[in-house]
Amino acid sequence: MPCRKRRRQDILTGNPGPLDRVRQAELLVTRSFGVDPHELYQPSRGPKPAADARQAMMYLAHVLFGLSIGQVGQIYRRDRKTVRHACRKFEDLRDDPVFDRFIDQLEMQLSPVAMAGLAQLDRPCAVPPVRGGQR
């Protein structure tokens, strides 16, 4: 697991660190996909909704929260190749306008301004169908 130390400035100002923001984002994403947050950390792929939620979190952790591919892999106990695949898959899925709106909604709710309020985490986004097997 990655180091869980928070920067001193973050602690003093009450700003969540990147891992704290990822954990908060997991609540919204898993609720949107209809899975339990613990399913993100299963060693196997698991059911399709859990795999899709995990891939969405990998994408958001890398793109939105700025974590490296390696850091994301450590969090979700996956290798870098798997994380890169998830990021590529979600970038490709964004070509679909419905799916792009879904990711935009997640990103807006998970933006630093929204994360400060955290009230919006009570409203999950409606997940469009995720196409599998895209390469």
From TrEMBL:
Q: Name one GO molecular function term.
A: sequence-specific DNA binding
What name does the UniProt record give this protein?
Answer: Chromosomal replication initiator DnaA C-terminal domain-containing protein
Report the domain of life of the source organism. Answer: Bacteria
CDD domains assigned to the protein according to its UniProt record, in alphabetical order: Bac_DnaA_C
What organism is listed for this UniProt entry?
Pannonibacter tanglangensis
Matching entries from Pfam families are given as:
Bac_DnaA_C
Question: A biological process (GO) annotation for this entry?
Answer: DNA replication initiation
Q: Which InterPro entries match?
A: DnaA_C (IPR013159), Trp_repressor/repl_initiator (IPR010921)
SMART domains cross-referenced by the UniProt entry: Bac_DnaA_C
User: What residue stretches are annotated with the Chromosomal replication initiator DnaA C-terminal domain?
Assistant: 21-90
